[in-house]
Amino acid sequence: MAKPEKDPFRCVECGWTTNKWVGRCGECQVWGSVEEIAAPKRLSLVPGAVTHAATPIGEVDLSSASARSTGVTELDRVLGGGLVPGAAILLAGEPGVGKSTLLLTVAAQSASRGIRALYISGEESASQVRLRAERIGAVDPLLYLASENDLGAVISHIDTVKPNLLIIDSIQTMSSSAADGAAGGVTQVREVAGALIRLAKDRDITLLLVGHVTKDGSIAGPRLLEHIVDVVLQFEGERHSRLRLIRATKNRFGASDEVGCFDLHDGGIESVADPTGLFTTRHTEPVPGTCVTVTLEGRRPLLAEIQALVGLGRENDFG
């Protein structure tokens, strides 16, 4: 019989343990992350069924692992060339930053290249997504839309459409009847994401997951989510600015310090190959109080203009 745990509750974020349930982790201070530890099963040394035979590394087939362009040059830059079949990519960002617009553009661009894409929205109806697609010019016969929140229904759509590209918007809105808790909870996010990633790798489907962020800018849900995906992208931008940046904080297929620049406007989102003009003013002659400096965003150098404004003060202002 398995020996009971000394501390039967554990935080799924940091691993902190306690002998009673609490609503907030005493170590990482995350709410709702403490769960009861299931009784450990006796380890079995009986050989199991082999899914794929072990192969010498030099004989592994690479033909299906080559990256395919997204049709968005700045995103290709960050990803290291494009979308790899079987890869799981997590795109996180604040509400309204343009995540759905970017991924809808990627889906349409991929479909125009003959790649069958399935866009699952858990936050909007299919008609709402269609309206946005019409506005940004992202309509293609090979782009399929569905509005679902249940994992089983999503898998049924995958079996029917047989996509090469699957977009889930967002992972926090999906739930499975096989897991406890409400959609967006730690258990649901972990189970749904794990099931989708396993399916994507088995069928060589590129999986793009949209993730929410918390008030402090970290990705909502269990930390495990960032570990089990292949790529983690952070989508950033000021609400009153058109400039958007994508940073790769994890990338198994390329550099993890690359940055992509985008221009978000009413007609959609576009890559900005040279963002220098966004941070500088072009003068025909030197202007007093201004200079241009170089700053480094990841591995990308950017030019920025610094302006100093000096006004004449009165004598009594200085004592």
Could you characterize the architecture of this molecule?
There is one protein chain. The protein is of the alpha/beta class and 319 residues long. The chain has three domains: 1-39; 66-271, Rossmann fold; 276-307, no CATH class. The chain is built from seven helices and 14 strands. The strands form three sheets. It has a nine-stranded mixed sheet with strand order 6-5-7-8-4-9-10-11-12, sandwiched between helices. Strands 2-1-3 form a three-stranded antiparallel sheet, with no helix packed on it. The chain starts with 8 loop residues before the first strand and ends in a 12-residue tail after the last strand.
CATH topology group of the largest domain? Rossmann fold
Helix content: 10-25%
Tally of DSSP helical segments: 7
Return residue spans where pLDDT drops below 50 for at least 5 consecutive residues. Answer: none
**CATH class placement of the largest domain:** Alpha Beta
What is the distance, rounded to the nearest whole angstrom, between the alpha carbons of the first and last residues? Answer: 84 Å
What's the CATH H-level homologous superfamily of the largest domain? P-loop containing nucleotide triphosphate hydrolases
Would you tell me the structural class of the helices and strands? alpha/beta
Number of strands: 14
The pLDDT mean sits at 86
Along the chain, the helix and strand elements come as EEEHEHEHEHEHEHEEEEHEE
